[in-house]
Design goal:
The complex is a heterodimer of chains A (about 120) and B (about 110). Chain A has no helices and 11 strands. Chain A is mainly β and about 120 residues long. In chain A, strands 2, 4, 5, 9, 10 and 11 form a 6-stranded mixed sheet that branches. In chain A, strand 4 and strand 5 form a beta hairpin. Chain A is globular. The relative contact order of chain A is 0.33. Chain B is mostly beta strands. In chain B, about 40% of the residues are buried. Chain B contains no helices and 11 strands. Classes of the chains: A mainly beta (about 120), B mainly beta (about 110). The interface between A and B is medium-sized, with 31 and 33 residues.
Chain lengths: ~120, ~110
């Protein structure tokens, strides 16, 4: 059962335009969400995160939006640059009170290609 | 220069052999994790450790074993019992292992079993 889904395997965008990557989740216990960027044959690098008490978090060109009622989050990259071309993973975790541990559940990833 | 190192980057083994993947971090993080990535899939958690001398199974622990004798090291052994060991293996660490801690990843090891 895929609890975190990225339904678009790939996305192609022109340089300077907005990239919107989407992620849906099914587990209502998830309360912390992250986006990672990954280049081939490398480890993922952390981009941005959002707690379930917020609906938006912004860091430079990257903004993550969370819609809890729809169990949906999205990552906006504005403006997109060719160097943003990579695989983007969304991940979710859930608190469990004082004994929480950082177990992340990942989506399948979306390949973003930004054309010059 | 703090970070996570995994060695080797590429590893080839014959079927039926055990193999150990190395993961070292100098970030002074308490928690460490092992993930596996297969083509077209997200990362899946194999094992994690929140503190030295303690570790827990993740979602796909069968056929794997780990140890955590030192804070900075968390080696993963892929045993001959793992039915489909060829994959990209990623090690990560986080400060304390809480759900809001950012996990930082190593560069990965690609294991190919022939």
């Amino acid at each position: 059962d895929q609890q975190v889904k990225q339904n678009s395997p790939s996305l192609s965008v022109q340089e300077g335009r907005i990239s919107i990557l989407n992620c849906d989740y099914t587990n209502s216990m998830f309360d912390y969400f992250l986006w990672y960027k990954k280049y081939p044959a490398e480890g993922p690098t952390f981009l941005i995160s959002i707690s379930s008490i917020k609906d938006k978090n912004e860091d430079g060109r990257f903004t993550v939006f969370l819609n809890k009622s729809a169990k949906h989050l999205s990552l906006h990259i504005v403006p997109s640059q060719p160097g943003d071309s990579a695989v983007y993973f969304c991940a979710a975790s859930r608190g469990a009170g004082g004994t929480s541990y950082g177990k992340l559940t990942f989506g399948q990833g979306t390949i973003l290609t930004v054309h010059p | 220069d703090g970070g996570i190192t995994q060695s080797p980057k590429y590893l080839f083994r014959k079927e039926g052999q055990n193999v150990t993947l190395s993961c070292e971090q100098n970030l002074n993080h308490d928690a460490m994790y092992w993930y596996r990535q297969d083509p077209g899939q997200g990362l899946r958690l194999i094992y994690y450790s929140q503190i030295v001398n303690d570790f827990q199974k993740g979602d796909i622990a069968e056929g794997y074993s780990v140890s955590r004798e030192k804070k900075e090291s968390f080696p993963l052994t892929v045993t001959s019992a793992q039915k489909n060991p060829t994959a990209f293996y990623l090690c990560a660490s986080s400060e304390q292992g809480w759900d809001t801690d950012t996990q930082y990843f190593g560069p990965g090891t690609r294991l190919t079993v022939l």
